[in-house]
DNA sequence: GTTATTTGTATCGTTCACGATGCAAATATA
DNA sequence: TATATTTGCATCGTGAACGATACAAATAAC
C-alpha cells in the first residue's frame, strides 16, 4: 500500500494549479481596474505582438480551444477592445483587430509585468533561477502538447 | 518602449497557466472513466489522507474558497462519493466523509499518479530536477499566499 | 463538376473559480 | 444577559475551460 503517491504534497499538478491560480489572482486588481480579466489580458498580449489575427491563430498561440476563445473575444468586442471582421481571403475566418482603446490599454497597463514580477520573487524564485523554471515548464508544456 | 516585458514568451504566469491546464488534461481520461473531475480528485486526495473533515479544512488545504468547494462537494455527494453531515460540536460545520465508494476509488485509481508522472518526464523535467521545481513552486505559492 | 473531407467558428451543456452577499451559529464585548 | 462581532457555509452572478456537436466555406477526391 503506497499511499505516498497519493499525498497532496507530492503532486506536481496541484502545485502548478495552485501557483497558477494565485499568480492570476495577483493580476486581478491590476486588470479589473481596466475592466479586463486575465485571459483577456493574454489575448491582448498576443494582439499587441501582432495585430489582426484570425481566431484560430490566437487560440493556438494561447494553447486554448476556439470554443473557449470565441465567447471571450465577443465579450472583448462588446467592451470595445477589439473588432471581429470576416476574413476577405477566407470567409470562414474571423479576423480580430485591436481598437484604439485596445492599443491604448498597453500604455495604461505599462507597469503590470514589473509589478507582478516583483510579487513572485522569493528565496527560491530569483532572477537567477527563473530561467531554470522557464526551461522546466517549457519542457513539460512541449511534452504534454505532443500527446 | 518596453515591449519585451509584454512578450508572451516572457510571461511566467502564462507558462504556469498552460502547464497546469495541460497537466490537468492529462488526468482527464483517467478520472472521467470513474466519473471524476480533477478538482474532485483533489478533494479525494485530501480525504484519503484524513477522512471526515469540515468544508473549511478541505478548502484551506486546497487553497480554494468555500464557495468553490461547496457546490463541488454537493456534486460528489449526489454521486455517492461523500456524505455531508452537520457537525455535532459546531452546528455551523458540515463534515464531509468518504462513502465506501469514495474509499474504494483509491484502489481503482491506484496507477493514476505513476501514469501522470511518466507523462511529464522530458529532458528538462527528470526525477533529479523535480525537487528543484517543487522548491520553486512552493516558494512562489507561499510568497503569493502571504499577500 | 459532384461528392467527400477538412477546416474555421460558433453553440450548448457542465463544471469550476471567485467576488459579493446573506444567514445562522458561535464567540466576544458591554 | 443583551448586543456586537466573528466564523462557517451557502447562494448568486459572471467568466472562463472544454467536450460534444453543428454548420458553412474551402479543399480534396472521384
Overview of this protein structure:
- Chain A has 147 residues and is mainly alpha-helical.
- The first copy, chain A, has a single domain (3-114), classed as Orthogonal Bundle (Arc Repressor Mutant, subunit A), CATH 1.10.10.
- Helices cover 59% and strands 8% of the residues of chain A.
- Chain A has 7 helices and 3 strands; from the N terminus they run H-H-E-H-H-E-E-H-H-H.
- Chain A has helices at residues 12-32, 38-49, 55-61, 66-78, 100-108, 112-120, 130-145; strands spanning 53-54, 82-86, 94-98.
- The relative contact order of chain A is 0.11.
- The model of chain A has no long low-confidence stretch (mean pLDDT 96).
Chain-wise SSE layout:
The structure is a homodimer.
Chain A: H1 12-32, H2 38-49, E1 53-54, H3 55-61, H4 66-78, E2 82-86, E3 94-98, H5 100-108, H6 112-120, H7 130-145
Antiparallel strand pairs in A: 1-3, 2-3
Helix pairs in contact in A: 1-6, 3-4
Chain A binds a DNA duplex (30 and 30 nucleotides) through helix 1, helix 2 and helix 4.
